[in-house]
Design goal:
Bound molecules: zinc ion
Number of helices: 6
Structural class: alpha+beta
Number of domains: 2
Order of helices and strands: HHHHHEEEEEEEEEEEEEH
Length: 261
Amino acid sequence: MSHRSYQGRHTGRHRAQRRRVRPPRALSAGFVLPTTAAAALVVTATGASVAESSPLDSAGIDLTGKQSAMVRAQEAADEVVAAEIADRRQDAAMQSSAVQGRAEEKARAARAAKRKAAKEAKARAEAEKRAKKWVRPIKTWNVSSGFGWRWGKQHDGIDLAAPTGTPLYAMSKGTVLSAGYRPSFGNKVEILYWDGSISWYAHMSRIDVVAGQEIVADQQVGLVGNTGHSFGSHLHLEFQQTTQHDSPINPVPWLQSHGLW
Ligand SMILES: [Zn+2]
């Protein structure tokens, strides 16, 4: 069989024309396919067996084996890069989400701590206010004797008549200076209040506090009685200006100035 007859059976003219088609200059040996072009190839040919054999055949460009291999290698490399980029984006998103989550958690914790602190401060302020309010030593009283001269001598306090066993309360926040029995005063409690006032309760039937004890308003310190030099159950209430010496003051103005009279 001659060379010529072989060409004839293969519609020689047409095939010869196809073979004369040259790839564009950019596709000659050693070219680098731009990423966008490679991406387009991936899009059009991914998964198709056509892409394996001849990626550019449909475009009428006949690639050499070497060029096809280069295209496939470029595609593979681009897929790796794309996958890495996707991974990094996902990592960054997760990291960003985690950072945001931690920041939100931190902000929530800060808000909760602030609320808790404010609540505690408010509770402390209210407790302090309750502790520092002024209350009467006996809920209801009946003044049986006033401050001043009585029976030819000075009476240093006022007498508040009440049944034995009636609860006696601290008038405000303070410290117990002394608590114990005296021959004249009977059972006696001295209290130094937060504003410097000093009260004495005398003739008590029972003492419920000890010297040095911190007390608050409305705290029971003992019971009304008739102990010591006393005639009839009552509270002898006396106020002193100082602990240094005997310095009684009229309780009535003091009680008035503290809203208790
Ligand atoms: Zn008295």
